[in-house]
Design goal:
Length: about 130
């Protein structure tokens, strides 16, 4: 997990990364850890095959909501360029959501960072503070 803008915008890997079978208690532990950091909202950029990694009776986004996080799922394909519609929807969600906001894809290294950079540029935030969080 990394703050892209301290106290405002964080990027992360998905719950349970890199496992391909993730249980409800593992997801709940991840949710609890991000809530301890103050996160209030989540933008999930997982592609459809990775959403199937979660062994829960509801969707991952609904799981987040049930456990106190506002959330949106914007499916994006791994290792592909993030399209403008996803960027636009992510920016809109960020702007109307209670923060801080966390963006995650699978590893938290590509799609989530690209979307975070779009948000940072839109808001003209300079000298972005980046801090790794355990």
């Amino acid at each position: 997990m990394r703050w892209e803008v301290e106290g405002v915008l964080m990027t992360s890997s998905r719950p349970g990364y890199p496992d391909v079978s993730v249980s409800a208690p593992e997801i709940k532990a991840w949710v609890d850890s991000v809530k301890k950091l103050g996160i209030k909202s989540v933008i999930c950029l997982l592609d459809t095959p990775k959403v199937a990694f979660y062994n829960i009776k509801t969707s991952l986004v609904n799981f987040y909501k049930v456990h106190g996080l506002d959330a949106i799922w914007l499916p994006t394909i791994d290792h592909k360029e993030v399209d403008w519609q996803v960027m636009s929807k992510a920016l809109t969600f960020f702007n109307i959501s209670e923060g801080p906001v966390l963006i995650h894809c699978s590893a938290g290294l590509e799609r989530s960072v690209v979307v975070a950079e779009h948000i940072v540029k839109y808001h003209n935030w300079r000298n972005v503070f980046k801090e790794e969080v355990a």
